[in-house]
Structure formats: C-alpha cells, structure tokens
Design goal:
Blueprint lengths: L2 H11 L3 E4 L5 H13 L3 E5 L2 H8 L8 E3 L7 H12 L6 H10 L1 H10 L5 E4 L5 H11 L10 E7 L5 H4 L1 E5 L9 H19 L4 E5 L10 H16 L4 E6 L1 H5 L1 H7 L11 E3 L3 H14 L3 E8 L5 E3 L6 H19 L1
Parallel strand pairs: 1-2, 1-4, 2-3, 4-11, 6-9, 7-8, 7-9
Antiparallel strand pairs: 5-6, 5-10
Helix pairs in contact: 1-14, 2-14, 4-5, 4-6, 5-6, 6-7, 9-10
C-alpha cells in the first residue's frame, strides 16, 4: 500500500466536510466522483446550476452538497460574517455579496469560518495568491503564527534516507522572500506537520550551501540565525542548521561535517533557505527519483485550506482533499 492509500484510509476513518469552490473545471467533478465513491470526505461543491450542468455533466455526484452562491439560504449569514471580519477594512454588505459571488473561494472560507465546513481545496483554476488571500483575510493564522508556508510530502521509492523514503520539504510554494524569523517558523510548523502526517519524530534540517560555518555569506548567517530562533521557539522538536544537503541526509557525511548535531545524517524534514531552492529541490527529486510529491499543503492557517497546481490532475485533487481532511481531524484534537 502506497502512502497516499494510508492518507485516504485516515481521511475515511473520520470524514470531514471539504469545500471545492471551482465548478468551472471538469477536474473538480472528476475528482468529486472519485472522492464520493471512495467515501473519503463529505463534499460541498459551490456552483450555480448552470455551472454544474456545463462542467459536471456525466459525473456521478451522488452524496455531494451543491451550494448555489446566488440562492443559498445561508448566504446572509455569510455576508454578516464577512462584514464582521472585514468591516474595518471597508467591506460593506453590498461589497461582501459582490465579492462572494465573483470569487467562490471567499464563499468557501466563510462556510469554514461559520462552522458549515471543515476545510477547502482550491487552485486548479486560481493562483496560489488567490487561494491564500481569502483564507488569510477570513480565517487568519493560528495563534502565535505570523504567516503561511507550504510543504510537500515526498515519497521516494527504494530509499532508506529520511523516514524510509518519506520526507517533508518546505517552503516550496508560498514565500518568495525569506528571513530568519520566517524560516524558523517554517521549521517549527514543518516539524509539527511531519509528526502529524508521518507519525514519526521529526528531524529538521535548515539547509544551506554551508555546514556549521564552512562558508561565510549573509545567506549563511540568515540560516544560522533561523536555526537558533527555531531551537529557542520550538524546543520540543529536533532542529539544526545550517547544514548542506548531504550532511543533513547521509550519516557518514553528517558525522564528518557536524559530529555534534542531533539531526545531521538523519534528517527527514528539509527546510530550504528560499522558495527558489525549495521549488527546484522538490521538482528535482520528483522527476529524477520518480518520487511522489503530495502537496503543496499549507500550514499555519487556523483552519485547513489547501492549494492545487493549475496543472493538477483529478487524482491530485483527491489526494489533497484527503490531506485537508486529516488536517481538520488534527484540529479537533
């Protein structure tokens, strides 16, 4: 059984209500049919009757809840909540209604905020920014967390490194600009995500082109500062840096380059120093090692909202819904 099958089994064990707000794409309905047949989640699809008919025709949506954003009896409740949350920013009932009708992701986040859904998945038709922005405005981040980052669960075949080939890679999706505080926070959130999804102890490496001062540069200093901040803020996790990739993963190299490190040579959670290296890194592993890349999964929000690649397949949506459901399960604990 592959790792995605384990995720689906976990999602099915405690079903959650997940919203899909992109009815203008056939992939939504292809995925919905699979999710419903496998009983992975209780699906809510936002869309007008015309959109459902145009793009969902031919798919079996038995069991899904269809919410028409123009004729939903709960709509006024969501408008009131929108104004309550964003009135100080100039949102009026009229502008709230207009925004919800034009961008269903706002509608989805309001459903979550009002307790009518447990999470949302978007991004097949929308940019990452257009997925995250409504979530940040309406759901906010977790207490004590300043921002959102994105991780992938990497499943590398025939690999003894990491947790028998399972890794968390972050941030590969969200923040183009990084600093020590953001990197430290990403390290803590990624450790939490690894332990929640993989069920093993996280060993977090903050990556650099330097190991323990072997090179001098402002970017090295940033990672060193991030490591110290992360250790101080998240003492419950094993976090270390700065480490080169081979020192982080390979026991012999880790012993040679960082003999006193609790992480070197045994890392299973890799935190990249910037979005460029993170995005390149996960795609290299995915393509060259023929690894499965599950994500991006967003971390740091008060409720689970996840982003899809615009080049995703229906099966990617299925997997992301399962992961979103697991995040919702964790939030209940």
């Amino acid at each position: 059984m592959g790792y995605i099958d384990e995720l689906i089994s976990r999602a099915k064990a405690d079903k959650k209500r997940i919203v899909l707000p992109e009815p203008m794409d056939k992939r939504t309905f292809e995925a919905a049919e699979k999710i419903l047949k496998q009983d992975i989640a209780d699906l809510i699809i936002i869309g007008t009757p015309e959109e459902i008919e145009t793009y969902g025709s031919g798919y079996d949506l038995t069991g899904a809840t269809i919410v028409d954003p123009f004729n939903d009896p709960n709509k006024q409740k969501y408008i009131d909540k929108f104004v309550e949350l964003r009135g100080a920013k100039g949102v009026t009932p009229e502008s709230a209604k207009e925004q919800m009708e034009q961008d269903y992701m706002y509608y989805a986040c309001l459903m979550c905020k009002c307790g009518d859904a447990d999470g949302a998945v978007s991004g097949a038709c929308h940019s990452t920014g257009n997925t995250i922005r409504p979530a940040l405005q309406l759901l906010k981040t977790k207490p004590g967390i300043s921002g959102v980052s994105g991780f992938f669960i990497m499943e590398v075949p025939d690999c003894e490194l990491g947790e028998n080939g399972l890794f968390v890679f972050a941030d590969c999706a969200v923040n183009p600009d990084n600093d020590a505080d953001k990197m430290a926070e990403t390290a803590g959130l990624s450790a939490e995500s690894f332990e929640a999804f993989i069920g093993k102890k996280a060993k977090v490496a903050l990556l650099s082109f330097s190991t323990k001062g072997s090179a001098k540069h402002d970017r090295v200093t940033m990672v060193q500062e991030a490591a110290e901040k992360a250790k101080e803020k998240y003492p419950q996790f094993e976090i270390d840096g700065e480490l080169q990739l081979d020192a982080a993963l390979v026991a012999e190299v880790g012993e040679l380059k960082a003999p006193d490190s609790p992480v070197a040579g045994h890392a299973n959670t890799l935190v990249f120093p910037d979005l460029e290296s993170g995005n390149i890194g996960y795609k290299l592993v995915q393509r060259l090692a023929k690894a499965n890349a599950y994500g991006p999964v967003l971390q740091g929000l008060s409720m689970p909202v996840n982003d899809l690649s615009r080049g995703c397949y229906a099966d990617d949506i299925v997997g992301t819904v399962a992961m979103t459901a697991i995040q919702a399960q964790m939030a209940d604990k």
